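Saturday, quiet lab. Running sequence design on the structure tokens for the scaffold JK sent over.
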């Protein structure tokens, strides 16, 4: 099976000793990954801490605006009252009311027909009170998931199925291993490396098949990922990032989950970089294979330079994708700093923004480095099939 990265995966046919060396290297890393899984596998499952308040579902059947509870009309304090019909929980089938303060905010407000998720709190006297928690969106999310699956299968067919299987394994690894291992107090960097390795093995082999080309792409991905991890560690140290700018990390600390926030930040950079690295390496391996098939007489230098041109085009768009992804995630924060009229240079040095900058630049450097790594390794492997070394020119027969 080949994968759905928007390019054709081309098989390589290196000599037996080269192919054997690739498989041995992959097997060694795979064995180390399995050992890491066994050693770091958490004894407790995900979510083994304190349970949050139980929830219930309710549908808004009426809305009205009037004085808030405990105030009079002349106080001019208005609230929006929602009448809901509960569909789940101990009071299913009954109605309850929620009050929301009337503000000038442009936030979406619950309307008649909206399904809401409510937190249910039981008081000492046995009565249950409900508070708004979120909108119920599982139905819409499942529609989107089904649409995504159908789109991938329609275009990718069997390759798309392999890509979806790799995606499913990625989710499973994150939920069953990475998150519980982090909560159990394991070293975040080691957990990220082991988890990323499992994801890389699964996604690449399921999407592209078990052959030498996939081996080259996998080894190139792991090498670039290691470089990304080293750079992330160096610049987290140099820029004195603490990792506590994320309020979720502080909340975990308040819950008694003691995780090194800097290690957690580094782990996030490593896992985040993996998603684009495998795309770049597979593209370069396929490009080198196609170029060699079109020009079997090309030398290592010619093959490398030609494939590098393709890599540059790919990198230019992918780096911008990384930047826009991180900028989009930090958009509310950037708007906040802009509103308080803080200089852009000063804003960039604040940890909340500096974290995103470090992520973007370190991830981009790892991404750029993946191109020559994958291109060079792929060129060596495809030329080995002809018995030529990197500097050899094609043989010319005498007339």
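Result came back. Writing it out in full:
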């Amino acid at each position: 099976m080949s994968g759905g990265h928007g390019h054709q995966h081309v098989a390589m046919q290196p000599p037996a000793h080269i192919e054997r060396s690739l498989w041995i290297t992959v097997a060694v890393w795979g064995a180390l990954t399995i050992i890491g899984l066994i050693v770091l596998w958490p004894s407790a499952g995900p979510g083994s801490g304190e349970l949050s308040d139980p929830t219930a579902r309710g549908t808004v059947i009426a809305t009205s605006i009037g004085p808030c509870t405990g105030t009079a009309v002349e106080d001019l304090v208005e609230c929006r009252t929602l009448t809901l019909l509960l569909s789940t929980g101990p009071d299913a089938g009954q109605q309850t009311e929620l009050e929301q303060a009337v503000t000038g905010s442009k936030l979406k407000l619950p309307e008649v027909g909206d399904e809401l998720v409510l937190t249910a709190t039981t008081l000492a006297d046995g009565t249950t009170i409900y508070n708004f928690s979120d909108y119920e969106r599982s139905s819409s999310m499942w529609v989107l998931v089904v649409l995504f699956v159908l789109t991938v299968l329609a275009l990718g067919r069997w390759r798309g199925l392999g890509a979806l299987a790799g995606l499913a394994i990625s989710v499973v690894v994150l939920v069953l291993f990475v998150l519980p291992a982090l909560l159990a107090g394991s070293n975040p960097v080691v957990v990220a490396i082991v988890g990323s390795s499992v994801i890389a093995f699964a996604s690449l082999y399921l999407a592209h098949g078990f052959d030498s080309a996939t081996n080259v792409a996998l080894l190139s991905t792991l090498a670039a990922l290691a470089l990304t991890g080293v750079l992330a560690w160096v610049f987290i140290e140099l820029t004195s990032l603490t990792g506590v700018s994320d309020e979720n990390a502080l909340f975990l600390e308040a819950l008694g989950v003691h995780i090194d926030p800097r290690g957690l930040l580094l782990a996030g950079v490593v896992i985040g970089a993996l998603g684009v690295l495998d795309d770049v390496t597979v593209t370069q391996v396929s490009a080198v294979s196609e170029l060699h098939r079109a020009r079997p007489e090309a030398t290592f230098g010619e093959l490398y330079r030609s494939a590098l041109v393709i890599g540059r085009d790919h990198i230019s768009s992918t780096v911008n994708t990384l930047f826009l992804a991180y900028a989009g995630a930090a958009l509310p924060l950037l708007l906040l700093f802009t509103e308080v009229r803080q200089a852009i240079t000063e804003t960039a040095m604040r940890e909340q923004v500096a974290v995103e900058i470090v992520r973007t630049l370190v991830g981009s450097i790892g991404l750029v480095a993946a191109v020559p790594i994958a291109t060079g390794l792929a060129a060596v492997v495809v030329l080995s099939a002809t018995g030529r070394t990197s500097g050899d020119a094609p043989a010319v027969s005498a007339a």
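Notes for JK: Residues 16-42+140-384 form one domain. Strands lie at 55-67, 78-86, 95-101, 115-122, 128-135. Ask whether to fix the surface positions before the next round.
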